[in-house]
DNA sequence: CATGAATGAGTCTTCATTCAT
DNA sequence: GATGAATGAAGACTCATTCAT
């Protein structure tokens, strides 16, 4: 095994990745502060302490910076759901859902600067009419999300934990419920993610009506 | 009563209002098509079949057109909730809530072009961290919304229909649930508003868990 | 003599003149405040308490308002020089010149708001290269001025009071000297016009050098 | 001495300065042709053979281009007066003044395109009432001028060459006299600066009255 | 003739993108 | 590949002028 020829390329790749990440981090901050349209490439470059041209060496358009950010965070968020590779993942529906929701909330909390604006760009746009403005990739992304949520709901229906309503409606409901509390995460700095997850699940499962004798 | 002196001023006011409405209608359509930033004043003027300058005779900035639209639609949406003046408004919590929700869904459906973009401008931003970008008026508007939802929830708690959870959390939950179905309204042309309202309320009240013997 | 047919027309003319004057007065004030380009027809109309359209009933363009003003004030200023009709006008060169200068200074002082900006529009532009921008009428006006000053100077040369220098140079010198003190008039509210006139003439005649034994 | 590291920055600075000068030169010409308001940034850019945006890389507003021009020419004009560093500067009051005036006239002649419009923007506004429109910097500039002229005049009074009149009045008189002949410079292409300077000084010192036996 | 809203040509300014160094 | 100045298309906004009432 000759490692030498590997070394330089590897370093190069690392360097590339560092620039790329620096740009994305800077963009996340600047987008959050000024919104996508209010953010100038110049601002992002300055925040990343690089030159404007360098941004263009890594992304061919401003839009691509946003897309990459959406891609990255979406992927990160979805990774919180996919629990297949976790050994300690609970098996029962509710605790498993709770674990997933808690992880998602934590992730959103960590990147709240970004999620605050992602909303404006259709990340949570749900079933909004696919306007000409929503890029094809955006729609795909939303569809991935939807699929993940639908899978969860279908699991629940299959396991008998959820009422066999329309899976689509239920997945939207789950999304909406989470979103309600995600927004709290965005607003607060040190939100108690665990408690929020519990409340989210509780309301998702049993609603807001006056509980009678049902055991929680 | 001498109506004559009234005539001209009245006509003038009417003319003013007509222009203003034409502009707002055109803006609603253009914003929906291209988004706020993609919409040029020229586009709005053309759609309204007036000159660019005329837009500026009625709104001093592009931003103000959006604001006025938000104002108008927000007010319209809230008007659907305030049921005090309706004689046929049901008295019981659930049917009353259902009626309100149905009216709101219908209103959103009617102005879905607008609500699709209002989303991007914080109308539903909920508790998102009040960024420097959200105008003071925007915050006020969101607060009004919040207050209306909280009032509904508090009614429900008082009447014993809702579990005495934190009113703030419940109002967010109600908002999130509605939003999930509102988005469906936005996507579809002839959505069955009544059915959606029922499903919204049902999920809001009883959640998604498998129903046992509880009477629906 | 039938006065009736005269009455209405006369009143009409008076009315026209009143509007015209109101506009010119307003324009004088607004031009002085904001400069010609900074003054909007709207501003002038407001100051004159009339409608924008009315301004256009009296002047066909914005430029014409300025022109009319220049015309009027130029004429007024020149009227201060032409002393032919005054019975008490001194005959000797120096007192006569002094009287004329004093009257001009007083006139400028009275209309200083206007003269402060007239400068920007070539009223005193003197021999500036006749740019394409200086309207033909403007040049004529300047020429009239020049002619008046030259006449004065030639009088002085003829009477032996002035050194037989180039009449053109002398007239420019007289203009420059006056201008130096006119500017003081513009700055101060209650400038002592008489004293200024005396100083102007004194310097014009004898210069600034140390006086020896010559009787002043 | 290592010049290498210096090279690039030095070249960059030179490049910057070249663009800046190209813009100012173009602006001088265009302003002279069309006046400040009639000059479009586009015109200036075209004349300088650069893009519109480049103008904005060097000046943040159109106003700033004019200001920079005023600054530069004012400084240039004043530099003609400050004779301290000249070895061949005459010591006696009159020849010294004459040298200074000649240099100023030559400078104005050289940049007459500019001075023709500077007039419109208060460069020579003298003691005009400091309107809200005259920028603070403008006033400063005028004050500098005034100070220079006053210093000259005071020198003359101190040396006994000038009558001990009010220094302020005398400095205005000097300015006015010069201005009268400067304007001639502006009009003519190949004006005889030396002769003009002599005439200026002569009139400034001895006025226009008929000379008796006094030795010139 | 007064009125004042409608008109739309005109211009400054911004900023994504390019490219020579 | 980094740099940052040059580029120029694009768009908000102004305001002189028109014209229906």
Short description:
Chain A has helices at 4-38, 41-47, 52-58, 62-81, 93-110, 112-118, 136-158, 167-187, 193-206.
Secondary-structure topology with pairs:
Four copies of one chain form a homotetramer.
Chain A (H helix, E strand, L loop, with lengths): L3 H35 L2 H7 L4 H7 L3 H20 L11 H18 L1 H7 L17 H23 L8 H21 L5 H14 L10
Helix pairs in contact in A: 1-2, 1-4, 1-6, 4-5, 4-7, 5-6, 5-8, 5-9, 6-8, 7-8, 8-9
Chain B binds a DNA duplex (21 and 21 nucleotides) through α1, α2 and α3.
List keywords for this structure.
Arc Repressor Mutant, subunit A, DNA-binding, homotetramer, Tetracycline Repressor, domain 2, 216 residues, 9 helices, mainly alpha
Describe the structure.
4 copies of one chain form a homotetramer. By secondary structure, chain A is mainly alpha-helical. Chain A folds into 2 domains: 1-60, Homeodomain-like (Arc Repressor Mutant, subunit A); 63-216, Tetracycline Repressor, domain 2 (Orthogonal Bundle), CATH 1.10.357. The first copy, chain A, is 70% helix and 0% strand. Chain A has helices spanning 4-38, 41-47, 52-58, 62-81, 93-110, 112-118, 136-158, 167-187, 193-206. The radius of gyration of chain A is 20 Å and the shape is elongated. Chains A and B meet through helix 1, helix 8 and helix 9 of A and helix 1, helix 8 and helix 9 of B. The structure holds a DNA duplex (21 and 21 nucleotides).
């Amino acid at each position: 095994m000759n490692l030498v020829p590997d070394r330089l390329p590897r370093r190069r790749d690392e360097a590339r990745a560092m620039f790329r990440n620096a740009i994305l981090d800077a963009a996340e901050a600047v987008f959050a502060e000024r919104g996508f349209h209010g953010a100038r490439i110049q601002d992002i470059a300055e925040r990343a302490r690089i030159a404007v041209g360098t941004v263009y060496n890594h992304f061919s358009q401003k839009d691509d910076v946003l897309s990459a950010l959406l891609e990255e965070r979406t992927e990160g968020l979805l990774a919180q759901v996919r629990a297949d590779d976790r050994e300690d993942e609970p098996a029962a529906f509710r605790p498993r859902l709770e674990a997933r929701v808690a992880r998602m909330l934590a992730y959103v909390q960590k990147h709240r600067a970004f999620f605050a604006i992602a909303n404006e760009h259709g990340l949570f746009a749900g079933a909004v009419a696919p306007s000409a403005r929503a890029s094809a990739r955006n729609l795909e992304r939303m569809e991935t999300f939807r699929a993940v949520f639908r899978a969860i709901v279908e699991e629940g229906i299959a396991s008998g934990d959820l009422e066999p309503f329309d899976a689509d409606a239920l997945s939207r409901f789950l999304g909406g419920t989470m979103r309600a509390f995600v927004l709290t995460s965005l607003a607060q700095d040190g939100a108690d993610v665990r408690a929020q997850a519990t409340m989210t699940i509780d309301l998702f499962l049993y609603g807001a009506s006056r509980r009678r004798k049902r055991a929680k």
